[in-house]
Structures
1.
Amino acid sequence: MTEEHTEFTGSGRAGIVAIVGRTNVGKSTLVNHLLGEKVSIVSDTVQTTRNLIRAILTEERGQMVFLDTPGVHKAQGELGKNLNKAARSAVQGVDAILLVLDGSSKPELEDDGWFRRICREEVPCIIALNKSDRGTNFVNAYQALWEEIKAEKESAVQPVWASVSALQGTGMAGLLDTLFGHIPEGPPLFPDDILTDYPRKLNIADVVREKFFHRLEKELPHALAIWVEDIDEQEKKWTVDVSVMVERHSQKGIVIGEKGRLIKWVREQAEKELYEMYGVRFKLNLWVKVEKNWRKNFWILKKLGYA
Ligand SMILES: Nc1nc2c(ncn2[C@@H]2O[C@H](COP(=O)(O)OP(=O)(O)OP(=O)(O)O)[C@@H](O)[C@H]2O)c(=O)[nH]1
Ligand SMILES: [Mg+2]
């Protein structure tokens, strides 16, 4: 860092960075890599992230609070619409925007939408072309699209472009330098020993949901909602009651699997990961319930934190 801090003698810079972009481009993978720890679930199913997740990075240069947002996607029903609204409103009041694109596949309508959105922003914008390990065939197409939209909107926004692979960690240090260069000086916003303020119940539910996503195909993941009812925190073991909601009776069998194999696999994988995250043993009780049309039920969405 070249600048001297005069007023603030603490640890440097502090700011909030919203990570936005189309679904599946690798926003959560990126935030996990920047933090060096898993704070947000990842899968190759669209709209994996359903809540806004705050991930907090504290180091010598200061503190950066990342908002990992649900990817914007053609809205399907109430849930899709709420996720899109959450993603769009996340950019309000932040210090910088990190727009993630998938440089290995061609621009889509949602990318166009984000370019139009950042055209109007007054805060610094950094554009990360992710998945560089898969090739950079479409980098020029994104840049051309940006120039076109910028000219059409007569925008003065000058984003910084970076090529990265969140999966392999390529370009991460450079990206972090750029981000630190664009947030203001100031004291940390959170204590320096916390990684996320995402509630424990929601995090446990997300870990379980991720395991299901790895095994379920097609539309079923979207019909699935996970809710932690209760956590009994004993010194040596935490026992957690988890509701697994599906929309139809036929889906119940799929989620449980033949001879209960699928749900057993999910339980074991989730227990293992939670042990690594929290350093305490977990016993998960998974209860499968049929809740017709929960995706359209405002109160259920609200309870799950999606509305
Ligand atoms: N090859 C490659 N795959 C990646 C990279 N980054 C992410 N992925 C994969 O892309 C898929 C989507 O990643 P996520 O991090 O869940 O994407 P997201 O943007 O958070 O998606 P939503 O939460 O649905 O908006 C996963 O299968 C990741 O493993 C990368 O740099 N290279
Ligand atoms: Mg995500």
Note: The chain has two domains: 13-182, 200-303.
2.
Amino acid sequence: MKFTPRPGILDIEPYIPGASKGGSGKVIKLSSNENPLGPSPEAVKAYKDTAEKIFRYPDGGSVELREALAKKHNMDAGRIVCGTGSDELISLLCRAYCGEGDEVLYTEHGFLMYPIAALSAGATPVKAAEPERKTDLNALLSAVTDKTKMVFIANPNNPTGALVQKDALLAFHAKLRSDIILVIDSAYAEYVEEENFTDGRDMVDQFDNVVMLRTFSKIYGLGGMRVGWSYSSKEIADILNRIRGIFNLSIATQAAALAALFDDEYIEQSFRNNSEQKKWITSRLEDMGIHVYPGEGNFILFTLGTKEKAIACLNFMKERGILLRGMMAYGLPDCLRMTIGLPEDMQAVDEAMKEFFA
Ligand SMILES: Cc1ncc(COP(=O)(O)O)c(C=O)c1O
């Protein structure tokens, strides 16, 4: 018997995560935009403390965590929905609002989860061009059709690091039809240094067609726990709550996220390390004649000029235990993306890259 999945499912390219093995010695994993400091010590302690409680079902509404998020960000907890990573929320948004005949718009080099979620829901993903590898809001507006239901903008974008300034985002929203949901994916918001920036929360407060997504996988160092959250109108939050897993966040996940949220020292240290090391390695690579795309976030995107050179560089680094991310799946075959690591990681990258170009 052959079982046929719904239309669209077989069009999904399986997602290939960042490499985690390479070389024979120590591995420096810079392929998945994780926090190089490791997890927050407070989160680890809270996680371990849940061990005796895991026979219980978790709080299905993640109430304590949502209330803590609401307090920290001055929001209404009833408009926050927690998900198993923001990945789950991207899927839920598509499942709830997009189906056959609907279009989901995103940028040419946008996060791969957007087309996966759109196709899973039976909708059609549509890419808007990103000339110069920057988010082009006019191209996005031109790509809007009668069928457009949802627009995803990652700000800053992964993998380009491109940032849309607050004024431009507001002007874009003003031109967008009010029956289209604008999802502002602010996974890397905590790392942003640009002042003319919004993570989208003020827009959610003003407009009922804006949703902001956040994650604990980046600066909060909890990629392995799978926890993200959305902030939206009460109406959209209610819809997401109807279709999410009823106990989606485990006891350990909720406890670890709650502890990480208030570990200010760890967050500050993570921000500082990223800011300093990003500047340092960018200037070292530029000194080698490499073009690094200007961008925000805990990673950089740089071009090696050709696909062949990018593959050669990726493999050369891998042999030395340094794992970078190839960008073929993102339509950037000449580029590599590198997560910003600790000072010793960045020194190892500097030395290996010099060797590559020697
Ligand atoms: C732009 C963007 N959005 C969302 C995510 C997913 O994050 P999470 O781990 O919360 O699912 C990522 C992960 O890399 C990302 O780069």
Note: Residues 264-287 form the longest helix (24 residues).
